[in-house]
Amino acid sequence: MAFIKESSAISFKYDSETLRVESWGPNAFRVRATHQPVFPAENWALEEPVIAPNDVSIEAGETASIKNGNITATISARGKLLIFNNKTGKPILEEFSRHRLDLMDPKSRFESLDAEERIYGMGQYQQPFMNLKGAQLELAQRNSQASVPFAVSSLGYGFLWNNPSIGRAVFGTNVTTFEASSTNIMDYWIVTGDSPSDIVRAYTDVTGKSQRCPNVIVVDFFHWPKEGEWKFDPTFWPDPETMIKELKSLDIECMVSVWPTVDRQSENYSDMLSQGLLIHQDRGWRISMEDEAEPEYTVYDFDIYRYYRGPNLMIGNWYPRDYSRGFYEGMKASGQDKVVNLVRCAWAGSQRYGALLWSGDIASSWGAANEVWSYGEEVYQICKTYLALREKMKDYIRELMKAAHIHGDPLMRPLFYDFPQDEKAWRIEDEYMFGWKYLVAPVLKAGQMQSTVYLPKGKQWRLVSAQGEATGTRCKEEVM
Known about the structure:
GO terms for molecular function: carbohydrate binding; hydrolase activity, hydrolyzing O-glycosyl compounds. This protein has 480 residues and is α+β, with helices and mostly antiparallel strands.
C-alpha cells in the first residue's frame, strides 16, 4: 500500500490496482482506477485538464486527502473513496464495499446517502418521468435512445461516467451503480456547485461548448433522385442555385441532409463498388435495412462489431462522438465556419462538434399537406398565433443560442435549473423554462382548455396570453 502525491493529484497503489484522483477544473475531480501497469491515454469525453488550485495533504500510512475548492476526496488505507462537499460538510459519494464475492464485471458502486436525492439527466431515453432515482438505464446507443452518461443531483453535484463501454446505470434507493460490460479502467468525473447551472456550466467547460447555431433552412431526406445521388431531384428542385441565392438574400443559409446509403440503381454505385468504397462483407448480404419490429430480428449483440478503435462492447458509445467529430473537422478544413449536423445519437462531448441531436424521422412528401393553412381555419389560426409568437422571439432565441455557446446553458431546462432554492420546482415535470425569461406549460391532453400552472417563488410572473400579472404559486390559465 502506498500513496503518491503529485502537484494536482494523489495516486494509491494496493495489490494490483492503482487509484488516481486528480483535480480537473474548479471544484472537480477526475477519478480513475485500473489493474493495468499504466493508465490508458484516452481522455474520452474530457478535454485536456483545466488546472485549478488544490490543497493536497497526506496522513502517512493511514489515509490521504485531496482538496480542490469546494470538493474533497479521502482515500482509506484499503483504497475506499469518500467525496464530500466542503461548503456543506456533507458526503456526496461514498464507495460501497461488498463483504462477499461479486460478479467480476467492472463497476463503480456508491452508497445512496440521502433517500430524498433526485437525479436528472443521462441523455435521451423513453421513460415517462424525469427523476431517475429508482431507475435502471442501459448505457448504449439505439434508434431514439442517446446515452449521455452525465447526471445532476439535487445534493449539489454532477457526475460524468467517462467510460464509452456498453453498460448499465442503476440509481437505486440504497445504492448507485455504473457498470461497464468490457473495460480496463474505471473513469469518472465529479463536480460540486451551488446550483444546477453551475454544475452544467462546469460540465461543458471540460467536455466542450456547443457550436453557435446558424440561421438555416434544412432540406431533409428525400431530396435526391435515388439514394447515393447527392444532388437535388430536378423534378421538384428545377433551379437549386437560384433558390439558394434567394435564401442568401434573406440572410438564410440552406442546409442539406446527406445519407450514406447507396442504391444499386444510382449513378454512383458502379464507380463506388469498383473503387472499394462500399461496406464489405465476408458472408451474407452486403447490407440490408432491417425492420426492427420483425420477430426474426432479435436482441442486439454488441460484442459482434469491431471498430478501428476497438470492440464495440468496449468503446461503442464513443462511436457517435467520433462520427460527429469526423464531419466537423472535415467541414472546418474545407473552409466552413459554422458547422451544425443533425445526428441520431450523441455521447458526452458530442456538442463540441456541432452535433444537433434529434430523435428520428418525421415522414413527409410533396403530396402531403405541408402548408399551415392545409388543415382548416381553426388549426390555421392556432398555427398562425404560434408562428407570430416565434417571430417576435427571434432576438431572444439568438440570445439563448449565444448563452448556450458561451456558458453551456440549455435553451429548454427544468424549473429547478433557474429556481434551485424552490423545493417544489424540483418536482414539477410538466412545465419547463425556455431560457431565463419564459415558463412554458405544454398542453398534454386533447380537448384541454384550461391548465393549472405552478409559478416558482422569487419572481413576479406576467401571463403571455392575458393582461395583468400572476400572483401566488399557482394560476389557472386558458390554453392558447
